């Protein structure tokens, strides 16, 4: 069968914020696709771009393997690829050009190529796969190898006789367990472990237990897996974890689902499967506050090894949550956070500023929520319009000069919001300082109440109050001034 070189177009070193974090994950979606083609007797290789800083490095892989197909298959489980960062798009264009110089048939599957397939075809990609790609890719390569017509293959876009043809989209895969385990053997795992060690983080691997999200926040795009929600069985995931634990000695996992454990009783059954195999792990997830208010679910999560939950809190203003069609309440954020903390589970907030109609009062409510709940971590961003969303449709007239961030720390306001980019960049830093200040003050109170229970790490947060208190105050004054200058 044919030789296929898999790659993807996310380069951590080209995204300074993410590279600084030193927590790179292998390209899980790419590995699933490679495993399926290998199961069907294709000769597959992987050029993993994650730890590299230049697309030119792919030349040596092409010379070595001499593949018939170069498949640039982005990891759809990595939210950074969904953002369609321009640095990574340009890297992909370079990879396409290099692939064509080596006489490859170039196939691209990514969120960006799904949304902007015309741009990729203009750069000489032969085929773009829209949406979920494994089954489409297998059918496409099989059909090309057999020299049969491709006109009826669902999920592809290509050029024919100078015209761009967009075939009907393929339905998402429902039986996820039909997929083989990802081709982890293609990954240079020691290189990943080295980067995690440099950042002084416990080594962690990524697993996806589901695909898709049934909720309809109007700013969240789902170009790959859509609004359908399909789940692996607890048995499949337990087997996957057992394999990774035995093969790579890893016992910490990032469950990279959009929403973990949404299917009724899935978490409870997952816990049973882990106990049957005597698998001791710890993991962290993304979830919604409304789903975390069932105590029996949290008990099962804790029993199975849950250590941390990232929730899309977004805002402390109910007005903004409603405008986003978030479907949650501020009261639920408070209740879920308190319940999780009582169960000794760390809670982290995704926060989003700059949404349409947001006022200084809404911003103040979000900062107050952070100071009152003191989550274990926060991630702060500004609203980012993604193609295919109602939010994008509302603001696309403003996107004439720039429609994508260069990298994940860009934070430029791409549409006409309440304030301009400089304000929100200052706000992002200010919120982090207010958060650090709140952590330090909380630990100071604990030190006064129970000195023996305060760790050296907590003492350090107290000492840093000498910086954060005056700095946060100066930022607040500057933000007031910027508000009046808008």
Could you characterize the architecture of this molecule?
- By secondary structure, this protein is of the alpha/beta class.
- It has three domains: 3-166, Rossmann fold (3-Layer(aba) Sandwich), CATH 3.40.50.2300; 204-391, Alpha-Beta Barrel (TIM Barrel), CATH 3.20.20.70; 419-486.
- The protein is 44% helix and 15% strand.
- The protein contains 19 helices and 15 strands.
- The protein has helices at residues 16-21, 28-39, 58-65, 79-82, 86-101, 111-115, 117-122, 134-145, 189-198, 234-248, 266-277, 295-304, 318-323, 330-342, 360-373, 390-395, 421-449, 456-463, 465-485, and strands spanning 3-7, 43-47, 69-73, 105-109, 127-129, 156-160, 163-166, 205-207, 210-211, 230-231, 252-255, 282-287, 306-314, 346-353, 377-382.
- The strands form three sheets. Strands 2-1-3-4-5-6-7 form a seven-stranded mixed β-sheet, with helices on both faces. The protein has a six-stranded parallel β-sheet with strand order 8-11-12-13-14-15.
- Helix 2 (28-39) crosses helix 8, helix 11 (266-277) runs parallel beside helix 12 (295-304) and helix 17 (421-449) runs antiparallel to helix 19.
- The radius of gyration is 23 Å and the shape is globular.
- The N and C termini lie far apart (62 Å).
- The model has no long low-confidence stretch (mean pLDDT 95).
Radius of gyration: 23 Å
CATH H-level superfamily of the largest domain: Aldolase class I
Number of domains: 3
Residues in helices, as a percent range: 40-55%
Any idea of the CATH topology of the largest domain?
Answer: TIM Barrel
End-to-end CA span: 62 Å
Major sheet summary line: 7 strands, mixed
- The assigned structural class equals alpha/beta
Overall mean confidence score, pLDDT: 95
Shape by Cα distribution: globular
Beta-strand percentage range: 5-15%
- Which CATH class of the largest domain is shown? Alpha Beta
């Amino acid at each position: 069968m044919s030789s296929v070189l898999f790659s993807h177009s996310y380069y951590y070193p080209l995204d300074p914020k993410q590279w600084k974090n030193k927590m790179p994950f292998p390209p899980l979606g790419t590995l699933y696709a490679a495993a399926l083609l290998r199961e069907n007797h294709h000769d597959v290789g992987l050029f993993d771009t994650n730890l590299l800083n230049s697309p030119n490095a792919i030349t040596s892989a092409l010379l070595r393997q001499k593949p018939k197909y170069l498949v640039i298959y982005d990891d759809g489980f990595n939210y950074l690829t969904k953002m369609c960062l321009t640095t990574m798009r340009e890297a992909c264009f370079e990879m396409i050009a290099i692939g064509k110089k080596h006489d490859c048939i170039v196939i691209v599957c990514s969120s960006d190529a799904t949304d902007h397939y015309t741009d990729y075809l203009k750069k000489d990609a032969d085929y773009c796969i829209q949406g979920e790609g494994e089954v489409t890719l297998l059918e496409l390569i099989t059909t090309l190898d057999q020299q049969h017509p491709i006109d009826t293959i669902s999920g592809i876009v290509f050029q024919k006789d100078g015209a761009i043809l967009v075939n009907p989209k393929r339905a998402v895969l429902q039986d996820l367990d039909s997929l083989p385990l990802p081709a982890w053997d293609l990954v240079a795992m020691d290189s990943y472990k080295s980067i995690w060690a440099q950042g002084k983080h416990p080594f962690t691997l990524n697993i996806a237990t589901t695909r898709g999200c049934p909720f309809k926040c109007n700013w969240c795009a789902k170009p790959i897996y859509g609004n359908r929600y399909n789940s692996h069985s607890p048995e499949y995931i337990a087997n996957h974890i057992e394999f990774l634990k035995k093969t790579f000695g890893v016992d910490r996992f990032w469950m990279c689902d959009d929403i973990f454990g949404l299917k009724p009783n899935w978490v409870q059954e997952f816990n049973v499967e882990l106990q049957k195999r005597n698998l001791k792990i710890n993991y962290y997830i993304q979830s919604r506050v409304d789903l975390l208010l069932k105590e029996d679910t949290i008990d099962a999560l804790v029993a199975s090894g849950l250590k941390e939950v990232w929730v899309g809190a977004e805002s402390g203003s109910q007005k903004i949550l409603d405008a986003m069609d978030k479907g949650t309440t501020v009261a639920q954020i408070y209740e879920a956070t308190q319940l999780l903390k009582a169960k000794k589970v760390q809670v982290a907030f995704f926060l989003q500023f700059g949404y349409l109609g947001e006022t200084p009062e809404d911003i103040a409510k979000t900062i107050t929520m952070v100071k009152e709940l003191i989550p274990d971590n926060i991630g702060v961003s500004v609203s980012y319009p993604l193609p295919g969303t109602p939010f994008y449709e509302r603001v696309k007239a403003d996107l004439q000069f720039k429609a994508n961030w260069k990298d994940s720390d860009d934070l430029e306001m791409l549409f006409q919001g309440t304030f301009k980019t400089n304000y929100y960049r200052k706000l992002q830093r200010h919120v982090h300082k207010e958060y650090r200040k709140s952590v330090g003050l909380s630990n100071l109170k604990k030190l006064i109440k129970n000195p023996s229970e305060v760790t050296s790490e907590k003492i350090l947060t107290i000492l840093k109050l000498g910086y954060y208190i005056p700095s946060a105050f100066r930022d607040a004054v500057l933000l007031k001034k910027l508000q009046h200058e808008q």
